[in-house]
Amino acid sequence: FYGEPAGYLPIDRLLIREEKRTIIGVDVAVSVKQSADQSAAVITDNFGTGIETVTDVREVQTWRAESPVTIERLNAIHLAHPGSWLAFEASGVGKPVMQHYKKEFPRLASKVIEVNRVNDKATAAIGTAAAYRQNRVRYPVAAPWRKAHLGRLHNFTGAPGGDDDDVDALINAREAAVRDSGGASSGSISL
User: Fold this and answer.
1) How far apart, in Å, are the Cα atoms of 183 and each of 2, 22, 72, 97?
2) Distance of alpha carbon 12 from alpha carbon 173, whole angstroms
């Protein structure tokens, strides 16, 4: 990810005639004890289909908490965006947290897209990085989290242990929008 991102103003979004699909990308932390590891949720609105999808990043949240607190927080975020989908990284530690979320909140279980990582992070990021360079990943011009998130995005290497949880969450959201068009027809995607 390099270069300045495409920006948008709230008024710009009123001009879009396509139906939006709100997808919340999720990356869950392994432990609150690891200083570089945190949970992240990236709220996106997606317009269009396939690789032509335009992804507007609405909000980026990161936090450190044990699993029960994270599950409650994700539920609050999910409910705050009616009709949204959670694109939940279902590999490693994310899988049991995702399963617990679906069990705890059964009426929202059908609104969860499992993101299965079958490739390394750098390979999984290729599509989202290309969309970023093509101005198909856009950011609000002014947001309190923008500078910190873009710093992590520009420093993303895909190497294990990096400070990139919100970048992983963005990739989960964007790729779920591109590959499944927000319909969760299969309920899962592989990256």
Assistant:
1) 30, 11, 24, 22
2) 21
The mean predicted confidence, pLDDT, of the chain is 88
Contact by Cβ (8 Å): 189, 176: yes
Q: Which residues of 109-133 are buried (b: 16+ CB within 10 A; e: fewer)?
A: eebbbbbebeeebeebbebbbebbe
* Per-residue pLDDT tens digits for 122-173: 999 999 999 999 999 999 999 999 999 999 999 999 888 778 999 999 999 9
Residues 46, 43: Cα–Cα separation, whole Å: 10
| Type of residue numbered 123 | T
Q: Which helix (H) or strand (E) segment is 113 a member of?
A: strand 112-116
**Of 184, 190, 32, 52, nearest in space to 108 by CA:** 184
Nearest to 90 by CA among 109, 115, 108: 115
Decide the pairing of beta strands 39-47 and 54-63.
Answer: antiparallel
Cβ burial of 18 (10 Å; 0-12, 13-18, 19+) is exposed
Residues 6+ apart with CB under 8 A from 157: 122, 164
Residue 43 parent element (H or E):
strand 39-47
Is the pLDDT at 182 greater than 80? The verdict is no
CA 188 to chain centre: 14
Number of helices and strands in the chain (H, E): 7, 8
